[in-house]
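By convention, each integer encodes one residue's backbone shape. The lines below illustrate.
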Amino acid sequence: MDDLNNKPGVIRVIESKPYYDAADVMGLLGIGKTKAYEIIKGLRDQLIAEKKINSMYPYGKVPKDFFDKQFCTGRK
């Protein structure tokens, strides 16, 4: 199988996604899948309540910038 890291565009697409999913949160926080989904749901609900996103925002995903601020990941 080819190494996808050397394919043009593949890594840029992955890095440029504007959200984290459960797998990303699991890796960043070192937690299990259930806890990752709980955190994502809580953050998503908070953003909806504050009218920063609407209810059409995909389930199981949280905007990167908001997550990074909440958990002080140091990522930009």
User: Anything to note?
Assistant: Residues 19-70 form one domain. The chain has a mean pLDDT of 84. The first helix runs from residue 10 to 16. The chain has four helices and two strands.
